[in-house]
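G., before I forget:
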Amino acid sequence: MEPVQDAKSYKQEFMKKWTPYFKKRYGFFFIISIISLVMPFIKINGNHIFLLSFDKKQLQLLGVAFDMQEFYLMPFLLIMLFMFIFFLTTLGGRVWCGWSCPQTIFRVIYRDFIEGWLLGMHSRRNKQKKVDSSKVENKVKKSIAVLIWTLLAFVAASNFMWYFVPPEDFFAYITNPAEHKVLIGFVVMITLFLVYDVVWLAEDFCIYICPYARIQSVMYDNNTIMEIYDYKRGGAIYDPSGAKIADKPAEGDCVGCMACVNVCPTHIDIRKGLQLECINCLECADACAPVMASLGKENLIKWTSYEAMETGKTKIFRFRILAYIAILTLAFTALLLLGSKKEHMLLNINRSSELYAIKDAGVVENHYKFLFQNTDSVDHTYYFEVVGRDDIKISRPTEPFKLSSGSKVYKVVVLYTDKALANNDRKDTPIPIKIRAFAVDDKQKIVVERDSVFFYPSAEVLKEKANR
Ligand code: SF4
Ligand code: SF4
């Protein structure tokens, strides 16, 4: 087709207003990277925003610490994670891959920034051109690029570990590597993997290894936003079976310049339609826009949905999206409700094997083993009481005890009574009791209640003991 008359002024006007996607994506990458690096250092009420500590057997989430016994929250977190992935993919296709995935970010840093911009090994616009690796100059540049990336990969590996070993421990541990070989081993292995993955495996990771790439297409529908070549305007380059019929369509606006193909990091041709390999990087849209603008025409490659291509509008709130939102809301509400019931200390009560002991003057003792754990971020002093029973008293421990943050202790507990709590001739009587344990210094917030039993002997046993 002939270019429109005022193509030059159209292009000038277009270039003034145009912000390529890659600039927006790079800005987003920068923000995500800063957040990932800084987040492990931020503490709320002494806890991290996210920390899964195998060392402390603890999950810290948004400043609240949950211990192993409280991992019932995990299924809700996993449901939310999966639902969010389904929601995001149905809505925006592989938007995660193009805008947030660490693999994409690392490849942009290594390929476009280090190899391309810093060392001038290749152009960002042509990712199909192979660097001549037989040249000494290129060998040296490649070595420098790998070295720079290795240093950055070490930072990335350390950053990843900070979500499992908090930075305050991490930096102390790495100064003493002999005693923390497992941690050092993890950091070294992740660093080596990142070097191999980003330098040599490259986008093959996205195409052949990443499981998300395999499953995402089943979540697509007609309203899913993705990278689409407008074949009606551009013209057909491939037939419906996927076989190439022309480099440039017989009819249509596509000029066959190959800018969209050359720039593609996964080496595909978007003009063939939706493909598993497409990581939604939008580089092809950026490549086509100025080509078309110089002809005074609209971009042939758009970030849109098939529905919008047909009708001009994407239906955002459709059944699947609403269903995902509903499940996400339910899981989030359940998480909030359960999280708000969080106890700031743990108490487990076990009775000893003997039911009771009868002392002089008819005093009856019951023996227990209490496990106290301080799950708060500060130290506390703990004690307990038998709720609503003046006739059952504590004989041991005699006074409150201190527990540092995160630590636990077993206490032998002796309860006794000098009153006649039951009068059954033959059978021992189990008397339900409620134990309330609390932090003496924060009784309002740190308090838990557990049910237990106090056994009172039969009259026959009491008499027998008295006659001995
Ligand atoms: S076709 Fe290639 S360049 Fe275009 S979005 Fe997909 S991966 Fe990126
Ligand atoms: S960049 Fe645009 S005009 Fe060039 S080949 Fe691709 S679709 Fe056609």
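The longest strand covers residues 364-374. The chain has three domains: 7-219, 230-311, 345-467.

More on Monday.
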